[in-house]
Known about the structure:
Elements: E1 20-32, E2 36-43, E3 46-53, H1 58-64, E4 71-80, E5 89-100, H2 114-119, H3 121-127, H4 129-151, E6 155-156, E7 162-163, E8 175-178, E9 181-185, H5 190-198, E10 203-211, E11 224-233, H6 238-268, E12 281-283, H7 284-293, H8 307-321, E13 325-329, E14 352-357, E15 360-367, H9 372-381, H10 390-394, E16 403-409, H11 410-417
Parallel strand pairs: 3-5, 6-10, 12-13
Antiparallel strand pairs: 1-2, 1-4, 2-3, 4-5, 7-9, 8-9, 10-11, 11-16, 13-14, 14-15, 15-16
Helix pairs in contact: 3-4, 4-6, 7-8
Amino acid sequence: MIHTTSRVLVSDLREHVGHTVSISGWVNTLRLQRKMQFVLVRDHTGTVQVTHKRDDSELEQQLEDLTTESAIRITGRVVDNPVVKLGALEIIPESIEVLNRAESPLPIDEHTGIEQRLDWRFLDVRRRPTAQLLFAVQTTLEQAMREYAYAQGCTEMHTPKLMGTASESGAEVFKLGYFDRSAYLAQSPQFFKQMAIAAGIDRVFEIGPVFRAEPSFTSRHATEFTGVDVELAWINSVEDVMAFEEQMLTHAIGKVAEAHGDAIREAFGVEVTVPETPFPRITMAEAQEILRAKGWDPDGIKEDLDPEGERGISAHIKEQTGHEWVFITHYPTSIRPFYHMRPTDDSSVTLSFDLLWKGLEVTTGAQREHRYDMLLKQAAEKGMNTEPMQDYLNCFRFGCPPHGGLGMGLGRVLMVMLGLDTIREATFLFRGPNRLTP
Length: 438
């Protein structure tokens, strides 16, 4: 069947009152009464009521045979009706085309738990406008971060996700067969973006997939997620990296507030507020001292902040300054990678930071050690075999400039921004230790 009338979106129907239009969408709700048939049809812009008075016609039977979530095209006249809650208008149908009939009953409904909803994620997202809003927010957030990065002279790079060696310390890596040998999925573009700095690309920016083989079953971990990575050359200190990040976030959150603030307030009950800069900064040692005075880590043995500690220090900073963001700086050398630079006067700490937002870590960053001899020394102190990393280390033998950067989890930023309980909701198709499908 050749369809000649061009599609009109539900959000634009007000402009077509009195005219015949064609809309395409899904059957949202069926109310088939004795004298009247009401069908609510939903597209990605909204929902409209289709109203038909029973008349023993073929159209009546077609409407009677519809199922929820069937994909349909309806042609009809748009009329004003102040009684109708959906935009005070309705469509009086003239013809209906069932493009794809949905099976009944549906496998999920509004009471279904998250794990089962994830099994039917396409239906879950389609049926919930809040989920669709999330991806619109994600698009605006990414676009605005790119916009800021470009304005600051960043070059967007695409680094390999296949690595020949599992070389970066920290999280576990996924091993896979690669022809006649093994390869590993990149747990960060860290080494590659540093290579780009050594290649004379002054400021590097990337948004891409990151893989972590951590058997973590928390609300904030995923085995594959989208990372936002930045690396800046010729910096004077790690402060340059933190300043770049807080400005980038402020710019991006401002764009989200402008484009979606009202919709987010309505759908998620959350106010998107643009933070003031600079964000508060506090050293790890100071943070631990404050937390221990409040009873955290009574044995005084924790080197890092656990989730309870992160929430505690964020609450303290909010109380003291009114700020939802805080940079924790100067992490101990023992819990940071060998390539983080250390201050000349204290080799027990690193020139590194984590950024917390409302108690959740959303970023890790640092000034990198750019001197070849110091990198070898720091790797040796950690008992590392540097042979597999020679390609990486060669970058520092021929004039690599001082540099630093950051890695941010996009899903975590969205999770906090929209007040979600779990990162599963902030991801289209979640990957975790127990989930490789759909």
